[in-house]
Amino acid sequence: MRNALPLTGETVIFTGTPKAKEAAELVKEYGGTPISIPLIEVGEVQDKKDLQKLEEAMQADWLIFTSQSAVGAFRSKMERHRFTADSYAGKVAAVGTRTAAALDQLGFTVSFIPTVFSADVFVQQFKPKKSEQLRVVFLKGSLAGNLIREELPFHVTEWTVYETKSATSSIDKLCKQIKQKNQVSVLFASPSAVEVFATRVAPNTTWNGFTVCAIGHVTERALLKAGARVHVKPETYTLTELVHALAKRKGDFK
User: Fold this and answer.
1) Which residues of the chain register pLDDT less than 70?
2) pLDDT at 1
3) Distance of alpha carbon 48 from alpha carbon 64, whole angstroms
4) Is 0.85 topped by the overall pTM?
5) Concatenated DSSP letters for the chain?
6) End-to-end CA, the chain
7) What's the angle, vertex CA 188, arms to CA 187 and CA 193, rounded to 5?
8) Dihedral of CA 232/237/242/245: which sign?
9) Are 92 and 110 in contact (CB under 8 A)?
10) Could you give the CA distance from residue 177 to residue 20 in angstroms, rounded to a whole number?
11) How high is the pLDDT of residue 86?
């Protein structure tokens, strides 16, 4: 007989800080214990040209956001310089429904979201008309790759609005959780978190002894490259869907 609560006894570790509480609450509903141990820290990048860059962005034809962190940093700049969304006449593209929701809260209407929430699918599907004449600004993090700038068939201005670095204080805590718990699942929501785990945590714990969960195929590739075996990946790339997929796997094994 299957357990009605498939994550009973399971410690589910988020290696990032969820922007919404739904995923953690869902873990509890499935009987598990959610723990947030961020492996990366995100902070806004500020420089003396922020006002100039903000003015240029607000004149662009398209703004591209691939994360909630980018939206949050952009929001801080808008508030600091007293800009509002209604002064922007262009269009906005978002990779992911959470990113789109954050933009909606800021007052922007999102005109494009790819069917799969990743940059490689975005560049395949994002084909606005008269692309050679567009002014496009990509709001990005410090570790973002060059895919959007290089693969889109028009000039893209990149603006690094936030930086990502390893959260050193979390390393020991995560190692202890993995070693001390019998039933552990670790959720990876970005290649950046994978890199920190691979270099700072895996040498002390290995990749064995816990369920490895990837939010999408880009993170999955990073895990496979690091030597991990990926056990769970959802069809839709959100944390809540990742928890659903984890619960299904655990339920199937009980």
Assistant:
1) 1-3, 17-20, 130-132, 253-254
2) 40
3) 22
4) no
5) ---SSTTTT-EEEESS--SSSHHHHHHHHTT-EEEE--SEEEEE---TTHHHHHHHHTT-SEEEE-SHHHHHHHHHHHHHTT--GGG--SEEEESSHHHHHHHHHHTPPEEE--SSSSHHHHHHH---TTGGG--EEEEEETT--SHHHHHSSS-EEEEEEEEEEE-GGGHHHHHHHHHH-SSEEEEE-SHHHHHHIIIIIHHHH-S-SSEEEESSHHHHHHHHHTTPPP-B--SS-SHHHHHHHHHHHHHHT-
6) 8
7) 135
8) negative
9) yes
10) 23
11) 94
**Residue from 156, 94, 158, 148 nearest 131 by CA:** 156
Residue with tokens 């920190």: 196
d(CA 243, CA 187): 9
CB count within 10 Å of CB 9 equals 13
